[in-house]
């Protein structure tokens, strides 16, 4: 099992470009199943989760022409639907949470789908209820196979309907939208997710011939069509990487420019880091972060301690709470981190405490961080990455720490971040893969 060896305490400098958005990629690449025509996608992140999904589509019979690692043309004109019921499909798709995203397109075009037990991070329960209930409302029937641990769905006649989602799930909304685009009649989805990645999916589907209105709001209206054609699509830069690089610059007192950041799609992300006292300048579509000796966390107007919490878009993404938590360890001031969505995502703070951070884990969802104001530098330790986002946070902590850190189980980091060690070395980081 590979590890990162990091010698921290070095100031970094230079430019770094974010990869394409992983969470968008899993939706967009699944959507190629909706048409027999060619779909060309660019700015694809070259990471394990995305490559696994592309492999899975290839085994389904999708023709794949990968002109480069970030550009790929798909043509799903001869899909082997029976492969969905095979042991090979269950084994591979069970390793990848994103494999659930092919269910909507398969139901829409081929009238049946299989959903295996979810894979992915160990960050708490990740329910499939929104997906399954949405499919049922469109007319699908499902059975759960306890022995093989997967859902089988059949939908001979998908019919448009009104639905109010129990939660504004991004993947749930995307899957239901893809199932509904070729259903008969009109589908209305209220309390829909409205993240930029979902907006990107809807815009792509409209270019393919779908009729989706309300894009960017929590009320989507989908008029079913009989056929979707090919298109070209470019993915947004990954907002989680961008937030990570902002945090990295602050923690290591580095001068870094994030190139082609897609600033108009970042929502409140820059503002949240500014609340931690991090300075930044927006230069066209680049974000420049100057080297800062100190950064001070804001308080509320009445002097109360700042709370940073996750919330569905346009609120703050839960994927960056671990980065905010790490950055706060060296700030001036204190902050309460409230992780509402996943009950295990704060279970990496023990490693930061071992490094010398002052953190009180109040319960599975809340942690209070008391900033050290750089009076005491974090110290390097040996630790293991529990999930993708915590892994990146621990990597940032290691790069700012005194001495050597060893991060084990870096396959978790590799699932979400493309060649991160090479890219950090280009900024001057002392990191090697062992």
TrEMBL record:
Keyword check for Repeat: no
Metabolic or biological pathway, per its Swiss-Prot or TrEMBL entry: Cell wall biogenesis; peptidoglycan biosynthesis
GO BP, one annotated term: peptidoglycan biosynthetic process
Location of the active site: 121
Residue stretches making up the Enolpyruvate transferase domain: 6-424
InterPro entries: Enolpyruvate_Tfrase_dom, Enolpyruvate_Tfrase_sf, MurA_subfamily, RNA3'P_cycl/enolpyr_Trfase_a/b, UDP_GlcNAc_COvinyl_MurA
Entry annotated with the keyword Cell division: yes
Compartment(s) where it occurs, according to its Swiss-Prot or TrEMBL record: Cytoplasm
Residues involved in UDP-N-acetyl-alpha-D-glucosamine binding: 97, 319, 341
Major subcellular site: cytoplasm
One Pfam family cited in the UniProt record for this chain: EPSP_synthase
Keywords (A to Z) from UniProt: Cell cycle, Cell division, Cell shape, Cell wall biogenesis/degradation, Cytoplasm, Peptidoglycan synthesis, Transferase
Binding-site residues, phosphoenolpyruvate: 22-23
Cross-referenced HAMAP family: MurA
Family classification: Belongs to the EPSP synthase family. MurA subfamily.
Function of the protein: Cell wall formation. Adds enolpyruvyl to UDP-N-acetylglucosamine.
Protein's name in the database: UDP-N-acetylglucosamine 1-carboxyvinyltransferase
The species this protein was found in: Panacibacter microcysteis
